[in-house]
Description:
The complex is a heterodimer of chains A (665) and B (539). By secondary structure, chain A is an all-alpha fold. Chain A has helices at 7-27, 31-55, 86-109, 116-135, 139-157, 171-200, 205-209, 214-222, 227-244, 253-256, 262-271, 274-283, 285-289, 292-313, 319-339, 343-370, 388-402, 408-422, 428-454, 462-467, 473-488, 505-515, 517-524, 537-564, 568-576, 578-585, 590-635, 643-664, and strands at residues 61-63, 68-73, 76-80, 83-84. Chain A has 28 helices and four strands. The longest helix of chain A is centred in the C-terminal third of the chain and has 46 residues, at 590-635. In chain A, 58% of the residues are buried. Chain B is built from 22 helices and three strands. At the A-B interface, strand 1, strand 2, strand 3, helix 5 and helix 6 of A face helix 7, helix 9, helix 12, helix 14 and helix 17 of B.
Amino acid sequence: MNLNIALGILLLPAASAIICGLFGKYLKEKTGWVATGAMLGTLAITAILWGLWIVDSQGNSGYVPWGFEWIKVGGFSIEAKFWVDELTLIMLTFVSLVGSMVFIYANGYMHGDPGTPRFFAYFSLFATAMFLLVLGANFPMLFIGWEGVGLCSYLLIGYYFDKDFDGKITCADAGRKAFITNRVGDFGFLLGMLFVLYFFGTLDFHQLFKDGGAVAGFLGENGTAMGWVFTAIALLLFIGATGKSAQIPLYIWLPDAMAGPTPVSALIHAATMVTAGVYMVARCNVFYWLSPEAMTIVAIIGALTAFVAASIGITQRDIKKVLAYSTVSQLGYMFLACGVGAFSVAIFHVFTHAFFKGCLFLCAGSVIHALHHEQDMTKMGGLKSEMPRTYWTYLISTLAISGIFPFAGFFSKDEILLNTYLVDLNIGKTLWLIGVATALMTAFYMFRSVYLTFHGKFRGSEEKWMHVEESPNVMTIPLIILAIGATTAGLLGLPAWFPALPQHILPHFLDHGVTLQGQHLAEQFGMSAIERHHISHSTELGLAVFSLLVAVGGWALAYFVYAKNYPALPEKLRNNLRPLWNLSWNLWYYNMFCMKGVCGGLMALYRFILAIDQHIVDGVVNGAGRVAQAVGGELREMQNGSVQAYAVWVLVGANIVMLFLVFAL
Amino acid sequence: MEHLTTILIFLPAAAALLILLLAKTKNDALTKGIALAATALSTLLSLAPLYSREFFSGAISLGDSVEWFSLGPITLTYTVGMDSLSLLMVILTNGLMVIAVLASWTAITKRLTEYYFFLLLLHTGMVGTFCAFDIFLFYVFWELMLIPMFFLIGVWGSTNRLYATIKFVLYTLAGSVLMLVAVLFLCFKAQAAGAANFTYQELIQLFSTGAIQLTAGQESLMFLAFFVAFAIKVPLFPFHTWLPDAHTEAPTAGSIILAGVLLKTGAYGILRFCLPFFPHAAVAWAPVICWLSVIAIIYGAATAIAQQDMKRLVAYSSVSHMGFVTLGIFAFTLEGLSGSVLQMIGHGISTGGLFLGVGILYERRHTRLMADYGGVAGVMKVFCVLMVIIVLASAGLPGLNGFVGEFLILAGTFLSDKLPNAWLFTALAATGVVLGAVYLLIMVQRVFFGPVTIEENKSLPDLNPRELFCMCALVAMAFWIGLYPKPFLSMIERSYAMKNIESRLGIEPREYTAVDYTSAAVSHAADAGEETLHAPDGH
């Protein structure tokens, strides 16, 4: 058996998308099981790939043998080729696993919706695009998947295309916002790709990054003189990542992305799409390693995004909005990790995050389902007794995302904070402090959502309470599986101080193959790369205890405010901290600035250009026409029937032409 | 096979005459049937050379060359033929003509005979333009395209049709007259250099042997005279203002042909004549033309965003997309040139599809304003799916046709060594990718999404089989070019036109790092990296 089996990962969901799209009319709700079956098939193939990997004792990465030449012009060739290595395997694992859970859940969630076939066709297409993104062996293949997930998110976010989303914008608007914001990022990505092509002559990852590959050749030829090339490429690609992975300044689409059905949010926010940017940066770690400037910028953007998004999450009332901002915030952590050179830790956090965020969103969906599309947490409460499975899985995931020992998020987040603390940068400690502050806020707003949703008394209408019931098994079993993941995924990255068990399994696995490629190159060619200090295990343990205390502090605060003293204390806090509350509630006014300022301004500019087009550019043309008409009217007088006069004109005309030919040419 | 080109050129004209002869029978079905049969037969015939190996040898073949008439010392010939560039354009023309005939099936109800007569005459003009290899014959076919289009817009257009059609004809004519002057001058020069006739091969031969000597000033002026004529057709900013008017007023078939084929004749002319004839002037003027192209890309997109009328929106989007074509051509790289030709074909398909879609809606509701629609997705489901695919193709989504052309153009521009500040042009052109998504999605949004607010839209019938066939054919082509463009690119690369451009402009294929896929399993980069870590040059 060879790696060609990996193609099945692309073909199964693609086939499912076609079947659901073309035969949805006849299959109706059965399309859900077609799509789910395909997704479980990809999970099985991923398991086989792992088997192959382990059997092959050398642990070789390699091209999938099958492929074809996609574009060829002269010596320029782009192959439709796929590549499997450590990073691909890790990505495939959680995409197929968490994806399968979301697909199963969606069968229950979408039950009774007349658009189900369309939904599953898009959903399968989404999975196909994500797998293509992960498996692609070169930039253009990655880009097809990259654009594909953008397209599918557009279609899925706008799934309720005839509905309003939150009064201000429609679902279709939200979808369009996502697509266009992503396109802004793609602009950077495209240019980055062209830079790579120009300087290195190939777009194939392995050809670029392998030892003795194109980048090494370039370094050997130019030494450190052309360092700006790496900075330019790294930053251009990062612009792409800020679009797809929702970082400052392009994060505005993600919170609106929950206009789609909740399983869509779970898929976009947890396993697919937003992870693409982190994946791409990790895949291209060479460019970042070779440019400490670019890495510093990535770290700063990541830390700021984490902080800003968490601060917004504190005041939101819509449960999905809280989760959406928490996603933005967690993605910020991942980029912070990339920026301090801990690419493998970033992927580790992507991995654990996929489980607990997937679980949180699906729980939120379960709640929303039970409350008939109520999303406002101030109208919830007390659901704990009625929806025990949803409650417990939500609670476990909250513990995980807040970084409470021993849940998965504790290990991955702590590893990020540790690496930030150790990084040899002037602003390293500032970034660490921002990270810690974010951790505090994360625990606070996440437990706030737990208390508002599940504890206390139900604050909605009597009628809604009557109908509250736990979701069916098809929805709660995926929750339980994801919650198990959220509890145990941390085992794959135990810290150095952890006794007895093997440590850093997943980060070491990645470092061995992919994520340290750039550091090796930097060392080999004497380029300066970002470095980290070393500290003793006991200090590491101390830092871990500290961050745990911070998380517990956030939890305690949330308990005090939202469980003990609700609703009096929140009310009082809101009134006393009005400016801060306004800032948070209004999303730092950034969304408004983008929509009204940037978009509004551009629209005005476009109307102005149109006016110029109609009145000036076209005005000249029509004016010329009018002048010609007028002149023609005058010239008509020349045709007076006198042959002598004609002869004179002919002579004059001929002379002008002659003069022109003689002098001008 | 030998006279295939002649047959392809005159088959539509023969059908047009037949329609006129049978006009007395007043049999509308017969008229339409003849038109459909003629265009379909043309399409099938034009596919035949694809099966001939000799055809791709990079020469002009399958043609005829006979003396036409002599005017004193000047001998005009009827020389036609095809290289693979011509063939691609002819296939595009024929295919879109079938769709144009089908799009007119029920939309045209008055003066049927005359309508199909002019449509088929236009067909002959277009195929002739792509296949003429005598410079005068080219000019004749070039002008022949104008007359039928004048009537198609002027008689079967909508309210403001006269203004639009006169503007279209006069504007294009102004350019053609410039070209005529240049053609005449060129002929005098060629004759002085000992040309027996004015076939394309003869001229290119004289140019490449240096028999025709032009001063820099002469070459520059000649280039401009040709270029402006072609640029008006493309249309390149600021010569584009006839386009939105012509498109808006033209009947659906007219718009499809105008956007799909007529604009391409301009770019084709640049590739066939401007570049190989006047290479130095082309390089000298390239920065100006590239600036205009980049302006066209952004400006066209910006004005498209501000439109209320769907047809105007698509028309301005054409300005933006064709800006990519001229940019790619004047980057003087293989990637850019090939990308431009692919973009020409891709644009013909996706914009043809957009106009077809707008026409389908127009036939049902008799309005082009986006505000008169909304929520159509829930009513015309199949149409919505196909139309969204066409829109995405137009927006340059990878996997569909628009992306391959645009990507090659951007890459070709970026890699250009003849164009100063190539990176700047590339960066500016890439913004067109963002803006393209904006205006197209605005259209999708306003027309298809949201609730149905207007009563009449609640009962719009979905596509009938005829419309379904047209849309599906275009969608299939969009996928084909997007997923497997290699056959098209290889046809472009092996064309006589590209060979001339390469040799006259001294364009060399760029060398890339050889990509070696022979070993399916490659051992670890990191492992090997550690071994050689401290090895090289004794650091």
